[in-house]
Amino acid sequence: MNGAAPATVYAPVAVVMDGRTVIEIRWGIGSITPQVRAAAISERLLRLARDGSQSIDIATYPKELRIDVTQGDLVLASVFAGDAEAAGVSAPELALSWQTAFTQAINTYRVDHTRGRMLERMGLTAVVVLLTVAALWLLVPITRWVSGVISREILSRLTRAKGQSWSLIDAEQLTGIFRLLLRTIRLGVSLFVIYAAFQLLFLIYPQTKPLGEKMLAGVERPLEQFGWAAWSSAPSLIFILIIAVACRYLVQLVSFAFQRIGEGHVRMEGFKPQWAQVTSRLVNLALVLLAVLIAYPYIPGSQSAAFKGFSLFLGVLFSLGSTGVVSNVLNGVLLTYMDSFQKGDFVQIGDAQGYVETTSLFVTRLRTRQQTVITIPNSQVLGGQIINHSAAAEGSLSLSTTAGIGYDTPWRQVEAMLLNAAGKTHTVRQQPAPFVLETSLNSFDITYELTVFLTGQAPLNAVRAELNRNILDEFNQFGVQIMTPAYVRDPERPAVVPAGSWYAAPAVPLEQMPPK
Predict the structure, then answer these.
(1) What string of DSSP letters covers 89-146?
(2) What is d(CA 434, CA 419) in angstroms, rounded to the nearest whole number?
(3) Structural domain includes residue 497
(4) What SS3 class is residue 174?
(5) Which of 153, 157, 392, 448 is most buried, taking the most CB atoms under 10 A from its CB?
């Protein structure tokens, strides 16, 4: 071979038998490339392995320029100096390793292709197929059962929370969304089961075992990386868990303490019970924010550029979109500690009048006399004028009404009639006593203002109507004309209703009305 072309080292080419790599060829000469040599060696080994009549007695025979690895008279492969140089070992060592590899590969092939082993593989294949079909079939009823259980729980919770205004979707929509989510999860699990089944089937047969091992490595490698990442992050995760548990119990303790204060069981000097709910929310929010700030550096990946960029993006969105929200929250807190009104008070905020139904950090809701609800942002509440009619007297509502009476009626008589009408009105307090003021002397009449104080449970709109009815009856009884809202000239006779016409049809005296 002194006149032969120079040897060339190539990328390793595997000698494969029954899907397994036996050796690697890294050297070729001339037109005899490693691919050609590997294919020829594989063919010889496979032919020898299939011939069960021959015993395996592979030996090595040194030649002048090579070492032959033979089975009897059959040369399975030749080890050249270039093979040894490419492998980084001596030629005898490489020939001995090839001899061992060939022997093991042929023995393994003959064992794997026995009739018993083939029947075993067929049985395992049947078991894998049956288990896969059973798993895919059971996924449908299991998913439906889980969906039914959780849907019933959702319906139960929605029924209990029916009156809460935060419910944005009804039960059917929520159940449909949840079922769609479960179907998506079922699809993912089904694909995983099919993937695992094919992987097991490939691992059963020697010819496809390398493919099965690749599929297994494709799953094991990410799981291993995730496991190592979780293990390395375990101390930080434990610390975050400790912070979360401590924050939870602190929030529960603070909520319980302020609940007792709000119920009046615990008193603090200068702290009113109606402040307890808002103060509890503020303290709990501060505790949660403090816990997040402490735990943030220990979150896995928090120091990465991607995490920092995402945090910055969220911060910008919050800054741009929360200006009005923050303003309303701050105003809600100020309103709470200003004690401008409480739940149930009858107030006037700007042009809106009504009973305070609910107050929160964002809005204040009023229920009007017409039983409609007005929602006012707290920024508008604090920026406008607040008139609290319920604060006129302790534990009562104040109510005022006016009437214009002519100059020809003695003011003392008018005051007496107005006070009589107040005395006939239910829920009007005698202490503080009602009073009348002459508020203005107009061109044609005098404006009288009657102020009464009502019990705390009195519905203001109903009392106002009853008081006005009693005033009309009182003035009609004494033949005194009410000149408001405008006066043009004196009528031929006073504009009053005679007592005999007070219950003109279809009106019925109160005592004759059937019981409700």
Answers:
(1) S-HHHHHHHHHHHHHHHHHHHHHHTSHHHHHHHHHHHHHHHHHHHHHHHHHHHHHHHH
(2) 7
(3) no
(4) helix
(5) 448
Q: Is pLDDT of 21 > 60?
A: yes
Residues 374 and 401 in one domain: no
Q: Distance between CA 246 and CA 295 in Å, rounded?
A: 12
As for how many domains the chain has, the answer is 5
C-alpha atoms less than 13 angstroms from C-alpha of 458 in its C-beta half-sphere: 25
Domain boundary among 286, 321, 356: 321
24-41 pLDDT tens trace? 888 887 778 888 888 999
Does residue 306 sit within a domain?
yes
Per residue in 107-131, pLDDT tens?
888 888 877 878 888 898 999 999 9
- Side by side, the strands of the sheet bearing 58-62 are 58-62, 66-71, 74-80
Q: What angle do CA 210, 215, 219 make, to 5 degrees?
A: 140
- DSSP at 264: T
Mean pLDDT of the chain: 79
Query: For residue 475, what is the domain's CATH number?
Result: 3.30.70.100
Sign of CA dihedral 480, 481, 485, 486: negative
Last residue of a domain, one of 83, 112, 141: 112
How confident is the model at residue 432, as a pLDDT?
Answer: 84
Q: In whole angstroms, what is the distance from residue 113 CA to residue 117 CA?
A: 6
| Mean pLDDT to the nearest integer, 163-183 | 62
Domain of 341, in residue numbers: 328-391
Lowest mean pLDDT among 8-12, 102-106, 204-208: 8-12
Q: Return the amino acid letter for 183.
A: R
Predicted pLDDT at 120? 84
Is 501 domain-assigned? no
Q: What residue has token string 């991607």?
A: 306
Q: List the one residue out of 412, 406, 401, 414 whose CA is nearest residue 441.
A: 406
Contact 256, 276 (CB under 8 A): no
Amino acid (one-letter) located at 308: K
Q: Confidence class of residue 353 from pLDDT cuts 50, 70 and 90?
A: confident
Task: Let me know whether 83 and 39 are in one domain.
Answer: yes
Q: How far is CA 403 from CA 150, 406, 472, in A?
A: 64, 10, 10
Please give the average per-residue pLDDT across 471-487, as a whole number: 82
Q: Is residue 14 classed as helix, strand or coil in its secondary structure? A: strand
- SS3 of 203, please? helix
Under 8 Å between Cβ of 29 and 5: yes
Question: What span, in angstroms and rounded, lies between the C-alpha atoms of 307 and 324?
Answer: 27
Residue 96 vs residues 12, 25, 71, 171, 340: alpha-carbon distances, Å: 19, 15, 14, 75, 98
pLDDT at position 168: 44
pLDDT at 272 over 90: no
Pair 99, 60: CB distance under 8 Å: yes
Q: Is residue 11 part of a domain?
A: yes
> Containing H/E element for 360?
none
